[in-house]
Every structure is written in C-alpha cells, then in structure tokens.
Write a structure and sequence with these properties.
single chain; 12-stranded mixed beta sheet; 29 helices
Length: 788
Amino acid sequence: MTTAILVLVLVTSATGVALRVQHGAVPTTYGPFRVFAVSTGVLALLLTLAGVVVLVGVAERLMGSWRTVVAFVTTTVVGTGIGALSAFVDSDGRDVVPLLLGRATSFDPWTAIVGTVVTASAFAGPLWRRRIRVNALAVVAALLLYAGHASDLYAVLAAGAGWVLGELLRRTPKRSGWVRSSHRETRVLLGTVVLVSAVGPVIALVSRARVGILAPLAAVVGAGPVSPVRGCHAGGAGPECLRALLAYRATDPWTLVLAAAPLLVLVVAALGLFRGSRFAVWLVVVVDVVTAVAAAVTYGVVPGSVERLHGMQDQFIIDVSIAASIVVPLATAVVLVLRRRSFTVLPSRRRVVAFSVTVAVAAAVVVTVVLVTAASSPRHVEDPLRLAVAAFGPLAPVTFWDRLPSIDPMLRLVVGLAGPVLWFVVAFAAVRPTGAVEPDADADGTRRDRERARALLEAGGGDAFGWMTTWHGNAYWFADDGRAGVAFRRNGRVAVTVGGPFGWPDARDQAMTAFARWCDDNGWTAVFYGIGAEAAGTLTAQGWGTLPVAEDADFDPRTWTTSGKKKQDVRTSVNKAKREGITATWSSWQELPASTTRQIEAISEEWVAERELPEMGFTLGGVDEMRDPAVRTLVAQDPDGTVLAVTSWLPSHREGRVVGWTLDVMRRTNAAPNGVMEFLVASAADRMREDGIERLSLSAAPLAQATEGAPTNEGVQDLLDLVGGVLEPVYGFRSLLRFKLKFGPDLHPLVLAYPDPVALPAIGIAVVRAYLPDLSLRQAVALARGRG
C-alpha cells in the first residue's frame, strides 16, 4: 500500500511541476496563507517521496494496509476540508466561493503523511506513541505558528484528525485518565519542545510568507541595528512598523547568523534537558522570560513602552498574534518550572562559577567596547547609557534602535554585533554546565565524591543497598581516615541513609557513630534506612530505636536448585520457557543491540505509564541505572527476538572482585507468558553458579515484611504500614515479596534506626519523600482515601 501511495504522490507532484513549467504558474496566495497544490520543486519532491517511503511505511507496519489507506484519505479530507473554511475569515474582500473551492481541492502530500503517522501512533506502545505525537505536533505547530502557510494549517488539522481516528481504529483496551511519563521520557519530550521552539523563529525568518501568529516573535529576535526595520522610529511603533516587522526576512547568511544567536542558547539548553540538567531548565526559563519581555516592550504591551499598535486591518488577528508571542515563551517557562524535579542532574559548583564569570566578563567587555566606540565617534552621543543597554540585543526591543540618538554607521554596527556576540558567549559557556556535550555530576554528590564512593565500594564492599549508593541524587559523607563512607538523602532536617556504611568492614561500625555525630553538628537527624540487624546492634547499644521496613531475600547460587515442592512454580516456568524457545541474555547495556535497548525502554515506559503515582527512586532503579557499565541486564526474548521481560542486577564487591549480584529492575510486557520472571531469576542463578558467585540477592521489597514480632513504635509503624498499603496496588511490594519466596531464599530483616522518637513524624515523611519526591498533597490524599 505504501508503494501505491508513493506512485500517487509522484504522479500528482510531477504533474503539478510540469504545469507550472508549462504555464509559468506560481503558488497562489490567499490572504495570510500561501497554498501549494503539490510539492514545489525537485528537492521538495524528493523529500516528500522519502517521507512517504519511511513514515507511511512505518505506519503501515504498525496498523496494516487498509487502516493506512483509511488514515491517508480521511486525514487529508478532514485537514484540507476544515482548513479551507479559513476562506471565510481571510478573504480580503474576494469572492469566498472560488476561494473556498480552491483551498478544498488543493493537495499537500505532507498533510496526508502527518495525519497517517499520527493515526498509526495509536498502535504503538506508550513510549513511541507519546514520542510520535509530541514530535509530530511540535513540528507542525511550529510551522503554523511561525510561518503560517495554508499547508501548515492543514497539517495541524490532519494531525488532530489522526489522533482521534487512531483511537477509533484501535480496538485494544485503553487506560483512561492521565498517562504518566517517566522522568527520562519527560526530559525527552520537553527537550524536543524547546528544540523546536528554537528552530521555529529561524524557519520564520527565512520563510517567504511569514504570517503565523508567532511571526512577531521571530521579528523581535531577527531585527536590529545591523538590519534596521523601516518605519520603527522614535515616534513609536505604528502600522507601518508592524507591517515592516511582519515582512522582515533574513535574506543573507550573515543576518541569519546574528538573528540565530539567542536561539543557539536554546539549542544548547535543549541538549542539556535531554541529559536531565536542572541548569538547562533555568537557562531556558531565563531566555524565554527575556524573550517574552522583549516582545511585550516591542509591541507596546507593558507600561512605559512604545505606543499601542492600532489602526491596522485585521486588528483582532494582530492582537492574538502579539499576545501569543508573549504567552507562548512564558507558558514554556512555567511548564519547565513545574516539571523541574524530573531534571535531577545538577551542575557542579565549579562549572556554575565558570559560566557566571565568563558571561559577566563578556558582558563587561561588550559594554566597554560599545562605550569606547561611542566616545571615539565623530558624532556626539548624548545618552551612552542607552547604547550600553542596546548592546545586550538582539532581544532589546526592536523599536528601541531608532529611538537611539543619531549615531554613525560604525557605532551602529558595533552595537548591532555586540548583542549576538554576547549571546554566542552565553551559548558556548552553557555547554559544560548543561551537560550538552558531556554529562555533569549533580550538586549533592559531585563526580569526584561519587567516583570516590564507587572505588571504596569496590574495594571494601557494602550491604544489601551497596551499589545503590552510586546513584545520582545521593550526597556523601566520608570518614576521616577514608576507609568508610555513607550515602544519604536529606529532606528538611532529616538525613536518610541509603543502607548502612560502605567500605572496609572493620571501619563501618565506627563510621555509623561518626556520621550521626556529623549530622547532629549540622542540626540534622540521622536515620539509617534498610540496615541489617547486626549493624543496627551498634546503634541500639547507644539507645537508638529500630523499626522493621523490609526483608532482604538471598541464596547461594552455587548450591541452589529448582528441586523441591516449594519451587514447583519455578521449575514449571523454566520448563515452559525452554519449550517455547525463550532465551535469556546476560549482558551490559552497552553490549545489547540497539533494537533490544529500544524495546526495553518501551517496556519500562509502559510500566511507568500504568502507575497512578510518579516514578519512584531512592532504592528503586530504572533505565538510567541500567545503563551503568557495571550493571548487568538479563533479557528474555522469544525466537523472533522480541523482548518479553528484563531484569537488572547490581554488583556486590569484596576486596576488588564481584562476589554477588542484587536484583533491581523487573519489567515485562503485557503479552509475556506467565512465569517469565521466574525463568529469568532461575537463569540468573545458573549463570552465577558458572561464575562462582557466592550470593544472589532478590533485593529488599520496601515497606514489606514476611516476619512479625520485632519491636516497633506504633505511631511511625502505622505511618509506614499506611504508606505500604497505599503503594501496594500501585507498586505491589508485598506481592513482590511473595514472588521472591517462591525461590526459597534466606530472609534477613532490614530496619530503620532512629535516635529520637520525637523526630519520628518527620522521619516518616522524609522516607516517603525519598521514594516519591514528586508526590503532591492531592495525590497523597487521593491514594489514602482509595485505600480506606
């Protein structure tokens, strides 16, 4: 079917090109839109054909041939038909009927391609469904908002029609309500939006017909003293000025480079968002706020700026356009601020200082050069301060330039170049703190501290949560002799450790006491979370209290077998998997094929989307943690190579060698056969037996216990029981513990050790916040009511 569509597009496009060559026809302009009946050139034709082959071909594989035909035709008809109604609002006094018919019968292949792809997204998994829709809508929306061609409007309408049509054609059950994204996917989606927002003004500046509602924003970015805008003079921004701004176009590479300078900052920031950089979040917020303020001043929205623009034809459309130029950047900034917790990588202080110093020095140099040039100018400059402000363009208000005192061409050129140079410096200085080129360490645990903790852990070892101490988001304390350390997370005045101390065994007990004393010196309450009973004995001897919080389940893979009545379920699952040709691949993330890692990401995203709560962390890993080269993945695949389930395993060290592996991530597809997880754990035991591994840990299920009778504090235990009960339907910790019991492991109670019962309410909140830092009060109340 893709081939038939390809032939159709080729024939219509070639016919249109031939007619234009024969009759000398040009694209017809209708009001604020430009309508192209078909692709308008050889390059456009080649790109269109490539789009059909790649995008429509993928769509056909996702939803089949007949659905592809339905989507191709339906979205084209809906997008073009509804878009043609724009003739009623921008006829410019012409006869509406022929205008309407002309638009309704036009055909742009990209309208059909976009509609078909968005329709097919309904048949993809949650990860790619969201990515396809966000990317497609971001691109077509940017084209519509900045360029504003009729074909751009048709593509947006076709995308909307495809979204609805896909849901109608898809018969599989759909989850109602908001579909949650993982932190990693949130970074990808918001980074994509910011990247498109940076490219949009460039598209508008080079477009022959720039009439989108964000066209004024592109003019704000693109115009300046190097290319002064006609009509924008000291008397204010009148109709002539606005017409000139809307008609402004970067006709030469030099002007385009200067106009793109602030947009380069957004590109760098978008790359940082992909890496989870919190610094990139605030960088985008600053740029967007500055852009919105510049647009507001330029178009006379804020008090004290230029005169309000009146007397223009289509005043309502102009008002909407100007409002959008201000609201869209502000809305992007607000969304990033609200979602900032998904960006967990904070820059090191050294890189922030280097960025600040670089920008400050560059600003000082730029202003100095401008003032020196003004002082040496043959014309007297009465207001050098205004020149200094103008040097921070090109986001200084457009009408600001001609309100400057009369200056000679050389000074105007220097002022015009100063702003872009400064923005280029900001962009390049932001590369390192945003992690756009290389990842940066977070602020709570610098890269050096994390590397030190990792080396100490490999040399001396740790407890059940040992390798989790190397994860991002942890802060570190090290003993004075450097032989032991503690990883922790602080919430308010409570420092919750990630397990017990790590390092050399003979130094750990003393490290616990020293860490608690250090926390007390800082006004914090130290809480050791998830430590074994033996380690807790050091603290209870000093008057500390304990609460059971989990059960660590492990066994020796060298002696473990599937024999015995208790392991009947495991034995049955292993035999079933072997009969069905399911294989288990033990590998690091980097050694897996790209096709396999993409499937794992999709499975993980689907798992997160099904949860009613934000993605958990602290002692629960995800795809980001699986990417550590020291971590191993065990992947179950059917004979066709389809990933059915995946587990990840964290190493345990002693004296520099791996002596154990701890189960962390467990994910499976909804189509995976029952027993696939039992098969993976049994396969891991077989692999570890061959490698001589001493300990296989099934990890600890947080807030889940198999044994009772330990001394507790009723108040905080009730809180932890409440939290465990609330999370059970969402994350199934207690069900997970029952799953682990199938393997006949040895159980080791893990406890929370606390120094002062008075601090127990704050401790309980700190533990919950460690797992769910994004949990809102509304979600907490809703979940508590649901449990009741």
